[in-house]
Design goal:
This protein is α+β, with helices and mostly antiparallel strands. It folds into 3 domains: 3-154, DNA ligase, ATP-dependent, N-terminal domain (DNA ligase i, domain 1, Orthogonal Bundle), CATH 1.10.3260.10; 224-248 and 294-338 and 346-418, D-amino Acid Aminotransferase, Chain A, domain 1 (2-Layer Sandwich), CATH 3.30.470; 429-569, OB fold (Dihydrolipoamide Acetyltransferase, E2P) (Beta Barrel), CATH 2.40.50.140. Strands 13, 14, 15, 16, 17, 18, 19 and 22 form an 8-stranded mixed sheet that branches. It binds adenosine monophosphate. Adenosine monophosphate (AMP) is lined by residues 222, 224-225, 244, 246-247, 251, 266, 295, 335, 370, 397, 416.
C-alpha cells in the first residue's frame, strides 16, 4: 500500500461521525494490507510508530517541522509561519504548501521505516540529521500524505481510534463479523500490542493467537476490581477471601529480565525513569525474570506517613526525580506476580501467586508485600475495612483466593470496598470530557461555563454522556482546563461520542476527570446506559475531585456497566462503624 492510499483512508476516517463507520472503513484498510504492512499500519492509524508502551519519539517539534517544511517546499520560514498562523494546524499548512500530487510516492512500509530512522537518530548533530531526513521524506509526499505525516510526527492525529475499534476492524476484515473479537482481545490483554496481534493474525490465522504469550517487556492489561456495597455482600458473593489494604498510590507493573527493568503505569505507559528506587530494588531481587503488579506510594520517613497520589506525582515532576527519591522515597506494595523465570504464573490460584510474592520479596524494604488477611467472616472483613480507613487508606480490596490473574478483566475476583455512608455514593466516577458550554459572566472569561462529561461504553467503544459539570474548580483551575481543552476542540461530534445533548463545542474525548456525585439517577437526557425508550443515567450534584489524565486513558474511565451496578447498589445497606 502506498502511503498516499493510507492518507486517503485517514481522510475518510477523519470525516466519519459514527463508530460503526470507523470500524467499516478500518476493516477496508486492513483487507488491503499484506502481512508486512499490517503491523506498521496498525501503529500509524493510532498516530504512533510502535505500541503504546514503547516510548519511541520522533523528536521533531513544531519549530523544527516548520524548518523542514521550508526546506522541502523551497519556502522561507516566514512563509511557513504565515501559513501556520492562518491554519492553526501544521498538518494543514503542509497540505497547503505541498504539491497536490507526485509522480512517485513511497509505500507505507517505507515511510514507517524512515520515521523509525529519524526517531533513532541521536547524539551530536542529530537535530540537523533528523531535519534533513524529514525534509527528504516530505519532498516525496503529496499534500494529503504530508498532512497526516506531520500530524503523526507531532502526536496530533485526530482520529481517536480506540483499541476495541481496531480489534473489531481486524475481526471484520478477517471473518466478516465481530466473532473473532474475544480471541483477539484475550491476546491483547496478555500483550497490549495491537500491531503484533494484527501481524500474527495475518501470518498465522486465529490459531496464531496462542503464540502470543505473557512476555517481559510487554505490559499485561491490568486486572481491575468490581464494587460491592458492604462486607456482607462480599462474603455472600465470594465466601473465603484474601483482604488487602487499598493503597491510594500509583499502579505499577514492574518487568525485569536480564537486560533491563521496565515500569508501566495502569494505562500501559512506560514510566521507568520516574521510579529509580523501584528499579534498583527490582534489580536486587533474586530472579532472572519477573513481572509484578503493585501500587507505588510515597513514604515520608520524617513524618512516617504516606503521601497522597496527586501530591506524589506533581512533586516528582517539580522537584526532580532524584531529589524526591531521597526526601520522600517511594515504596511499592506488591500484590501480585504474573511471571517468573520463564514461567507464566497467571493461571495459578491467587493464594499460590501470593505465596511466591511473599517469598520473593523477603528482605526488600522498597518492595513490600501487601499484607493479606484470609477470612470468611463479615466481622473480620468489617474490622479490616474500618482499621484501614482509620489509618488513612482508601479501604480494602477483597480477592478470591482461587482466582487466576485475569489480565484486562474487571470482575468479582477482586472487589473493592470503601466506606459508604447513608446510601450516598462515596466511590468516585471517572468521566471523560466530551464538550463544553460557553457560560455567562465571570466563567465566560475563561471560556467555559459547564462541561459535558461522559463515561465509557466498553461494549460499543463509545463515550456516552452522563452529566454536565460546573462546580468545584477555582478560577485558576478553569483557566488551566480551558488551556488544556483548546487543543481538543472540534466542530463536529467525534465519531466515538454518543450524546443527545449538543454542547457549544465538542471536545475530542481525552481528558479524564474524577468526580464525586451524590447519586446516580435515571435520566432521559443522557445516553449513558440508554436503551431504546428507557432512560439513561445521570450524576446528581457532581463535583470535580481531580484530573486523572496522567494515569488514565479515556478508555479507563468508569464504564456504563459499572454505573449500572453502582446505581443498583446505592440504596443497599451501607457499612456501619
Ligand atoms: P479503582 O481504581 O478504584 O478501580 O481501584 C482499583 C485500583 O486500586 C487498582 O488499579 C490499584 O491501582 C489500586 N490498589 C490499591 N491497593 C490495591 C490492592 N491491594 N490490590 C489491588 N489493587 C489495589
Amino acid at each position: 500500500m502506498k502511503f498516499s492510499e493510507l492518507a486517503a483512508y485517514l481522510d475518510q476516517l477523519e470525516a466519519t461521525s459514527g463508530r460503526n463507520e470507523l470500524v467499516r472503513i478500518l476493516s477496508e484498510v486492513y483487507r488491503a494490507c499484506s502481512v508486512e504492512e499490517i503491523e506498521p499500519i496498525t501503529y500509524l492509524i493510532q498516530g504512533r510508530l510502535a505500541p503504546f508502551f514503547e516510548p519511541v519519539e520522533i523528536g521533531l517539534g513544531e519549530r523544527l517541522l516548520m524548518s523542514a517544511m521550508a526546506m522541502a517546499y523551497g519556502k522561507t520560514k516566514e512563509d511557513v509561519t504565515r501559513s501556520f498562523r492562518q491554519t492553526g494546524d501544521l498538518g494543514l499548512t503542509a497540505h497547503a504548501l505541498a504539491p497536490k500530487t507526485r509522480a512517485e510516492t513511497p509505500a507505507v512500509v517505507e515511510v514507517h521505516r524512515r520515521l523509525w530512522e529519524i526517531a533513532g537518530t541521536s547524539g551530536e548533530g542529530s537535530l540537523k540529521a533528523k531535519l534533513d531526513l524529514f525534509a527528504g521524506l516530505l519532498g516525496d509526499l503529496d499534500a494529503a500524505s504530508a498532512k497526516h505525516l506531520v500530524r503523526i510526527t507531532l502526536g496530533k492525529m485526530r482520529l481517536g481510534i480506540g483499541d476495541p475499534t481496531v480489534l473489531d476492524a481486524l475481526s471484520f476484515a478477517k471473518q466478516g463479523d465481530r466473532s473473532l473479537r474475544p480471541v483477539l482481545e484475550a491476546a491483547y490483554n496478555r500483550s497490549s500490542d495491537l500491531g503484533l496481534i494484527a501481524k500474527t493474525l495475518w501470518a498465522q490465522g486465529v490459531e496464531g493467537m496462542d503464540t502470543i504469550k505473557v512476555t517481559v517487556g510487554k505490559p499485561l492489561r491490568s486486572q481491575l476490581a468490581e464494587r460491592l456495597p458492604n462486607p456482607e455482600a462480599v462474603i455472600k458473593k465470594l465466601g473465603l477471601v484474601g483482604v488487602q489494604p487499598k493503597y491510594d498510590g500509583f499502579r505499577v507493573q514492574i518487568h525485569k529480565d536480564a537486560r533491563e527493568v521496565s515500569i508501566f503505569s495502569r494505562n500501559l505507559e512506560t514510566m521507568t525513569p520516574m521510579f529509580p528506587e523501584l528499579v534498583a530494588a527490582t534489580i536486587a531481587l533474586p530472579v532472572k525474570s519477573v513481572i509484578l503488579d503493585g501500587e507505588a506510594i510515597a513514604y515520608s520517613p520524617a513524618s512516617e506517613e504516606y503521601v497522597p497520589f496527586q501530591e506524589t506525582t506533581a512533586r516528582r515532576r517539580k522537584e526532580g526525580i532524584d531529589e524526591f527519591a531521597t526526601t520522600v522515597p517511594l515504596r511499592a506494595f506488591v500484590f501480585d506476580i504474573m511471571f517468573r523465570d520463564g514461567t507464566d504464573l497467571t493461571p495459578l490460584p491467587y493464594e499460590q501467586r501470593f505465596a511466591i510474592v511473599d517469598t520473593l520479596l523477603k528482605g526488600s524494604d522498597t518492595l513490600q508485600v501487601a499484607p493479606l488477611t484470609r477470612t470468611d467472616s463479615v466481622e473480620i472483613l468489617t474490622r479490616e475495612l474500618l482499621d484501614n480507613i482509620s489509618r488513612g487508606l482508601e479501604g480494602v480490596v477483597a480477592k478470591r483466593l482461587d482466582s487466576p490473574y485475569q489480565a484486562g478483566a474487571r470482575n468479582f475476583n477482586w472487589v473493592k470496598l470503601k466506606r459508604n455512608t447513608s446510601g450516598q455514593l462515596t466511590d468516585t466516577v471517572d468521566v471523560v470530557l466530551i464538550g463544553y458550554y460557553g457560560g455567562k459572566g465571570k466563567r465566560a472569561e475563561f471560556g467555559a461555563g459547564a462541561l459535558l462529561a461522559g463515561v465509557y461504553d466498553s461494549d460499543k467503544d463509545e463515550f456516552v454522556s452522563i452529566s454536565k459539570l460546573g462546580t468545584g474548580l477555582s478560577d485558576e483551575g478553569w483557566r488551566d482546563l480551558h488551556r488544556q481543552m483548546s487543543r481538543l476542540e472540534v466542530s463536529e461530534k467525534p465519531a466515538r461520542v454518543n450524546s443527545l445533548l449538543v454542547p457549544d463545542m465538542w471536545l475530542r474525548p481525552e481528558v479524564v476527570v474524577e468526580v464525586l456525585a451524590d447519586e446516580i439517577t435515571p435520566s432521559p437526557r443522557h445516553s449513558a446506559g440508554k436503551v431504546g425508550d428507557q432512560p439513561g443515567f445521570a450524576l446528581r450534584f457532581p463535583r470535580i475531585v481531580s484530573f486523572r489524565s496522567a494515569d488514565k486513558k479515556p478508555e479507563d474511565a468508569t464504564t456504563v456497566r459499572e454505573i449500572r451496578e453502582m446505581f443498583e447498589q446505592q440504596h443497599q445497606r451501607p457499612v456501619r462503624d
